[in-house]
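Sequence only, no structure available. Ideas?
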Amino acid sequence: MKSSLGKRAQIDCSSGFKSENRSIQLDSSLVNPHENRIPKVQVSLFDFEALITTIFVSIISFTTSLLVWAYIPEDSFLIIFSGLVMFLMPLIFFLNRPNTAVVTSGKIIIKKPLRKPIVVEKEDIRQISVTKNRDHSLRWLIRSFYVIFLPLYLGEGIIKALRNLERSFPDYIVFSLFLVRLAGVAIFLALFYNFELLAPYQQTLKVTTNSNLNLQFYTEKPKELVAILKNEAK
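Reply:
I predicted one. Tokens follow.
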């Protein structure tokens, strides 16, 4: 009886260790307890640079499309480019989608597509607050809007394209006009995708830094994230 209890106690005491090459090493889950309990985090960061980029791309798209219509002859298939260039707008909205964040010891790393990660040091954290996520409360209303609006918007574009074909418009002109409508659909889909990334979360964690950077964190376990951030903000 004593021998069996002694063996069981020895196993329990050694459960947090791993044997490698005859050496006993501490399990990584015990070395870095925060690494395993950090929840999945989404960060909404539409900063000034992203705003300027979106405005610039929108102006370039509209201007280029108008110039193509104004200076390329109607009998040239290159006029299709006026519709293709409009897809830059949904692309920039997709690239400005909410980002994933990694909370490590002493810093927050925000990964952004096609850009360098944003690193927030623990010394730069000034305030942490928790608020209700309004997108979560309105999610069914907004989802219903998209479900009703997008088919109607796309259907109207198809009807206009068919009418233009009946009027003997060249196929490439009709296709170019339809591409503009498809670009509009892509914009709404990109916005809806961005919304759906954040809508499932009930609370928003707002982090303000000394450099006046406002971050909004979305996670299924807000209390754990608050504890981690406050611990690292000390």
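The longest strand covers residues 125-132.
Hope that gets you unstuck.
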